[in-house]
Fold:
Amino acid sequence: MDLLALATAVSLLVTVLAFALAIAGPATGVQIRSRLQGVLAGTGPAMDASTVDPLRRSAPVAGLLHGIFSGRWLRRMEEDIRLADSQLQPLDVVALRVAIGGAGFVVGFVVLSSLLNGVFGVLVGVLAFAVGFQIPAVWLSMRRKSRSAKLEAQLPDTLSFIANSLKAGFGLIQAMSMAAEQLEHPLSTELAVTVHETNVGSSTEEAFVNLSERCQNYDLDLVVTAILVQRSAGGNLAEILETVCGTMRERARIKGEIVTLTAQQRLTGLVISCLPIGVGAMFLVISPDYISLLFTETLGLVMLGIGALMWVVGFMVIKRILDIEV
Structure:
């Protein structure tokens, strides 16, 4: 039997099984985790025995994952999923990464096997697997950045609301509770959890430290630091929050100006990055025999690989240059 055909069949089988595991994962665990978060924030109903039983039945799968991927890697994945506001489990993410990577390997190898010999076909399949394996991680990273950006956008108005509540005579925890009722997710959820922690016995300092660790946002870390310093050294908290709020609004204004001033350069970088792909597609349509040497000859494949590597390096350099921190 052809070893390459056997490898393709095994890859296809693993891909199908991974997709089945990702799609048929225990949805009950997702529902229970959502209800647990609601109960912790004080916004959800209590759970009964019928709700807890499915969680106990789904424990062996999670235990298997903890047995295989234990330690820092699993904790980091769970943290990334939570910061991305995703209802997926770590096992779902692993299954999706394997499934998409396996699908990329099978499709890349099968489609290009007629154009390339066996060795280069396998190399292209491995490259497709690596790209597909990273797609769920990139998706989680984008969701995490989106959540962080939304939280930053909510912070100035939240600080103004809390500062005005403090001036009106409310306490800090009362002001945060009222702000949580008026805001939207994700900041409302995090404030509600912080208020709930203080209500069940945690100290204010510990609750704010936990808030900073849960959100992992620079602006929120600045707010938490200002509040903790005020509680230890004293001062007018309302004025401190207004000062921090003004600083955040000024940073947002400067970021907007930077985005405006670098718009032409970012567009130029995008056009330059897309130019090689566009030229290659044009030659595939106009003169496929001329460009097919890149895919059929060894030297052409080497040149194509070097060009792809240089393209990635150039794209990252342009992105790094335009990434201006404020």
